[in-house]
Amino acid sequence: MNQKLSFFKAQAIFWLFLFAVFVGLIILFNGILLPFVIGAIVAYLLNPLVRILGQKGMKRWVASILILSAFSLFIVALIAISAPLLAREFGEFISSVPQYTQRISSIVQSRLSILEQRTGFDFMDKMHASIEEDIGKTLQMSQKVVGGVAAGLMMGGSAIVGFVTTALLVPIVAYFMMKDWPRITGFVHNLIPKAHKATINSLLDQIDRKISGFIRGQLSVCLILGVMYAIALSIAGLEYGSLIGLGTGLLSIIPYVGSTIGLLSSIGVAALQTDGDMTYVATIAAIFFTGQFIEGNFITPKLIGDSVGLHPLWIIFALMAGGSLVGLTGMLMAIPVAAIISVLIGFAIQTYKNSDFYKTPEKVSPVITDATNLPEIEIIIKTES
Question: What share of residues in the chain are helix, strand, coil (percent, to 5)?
Answer without folding.
Answer: 85, 0, 15
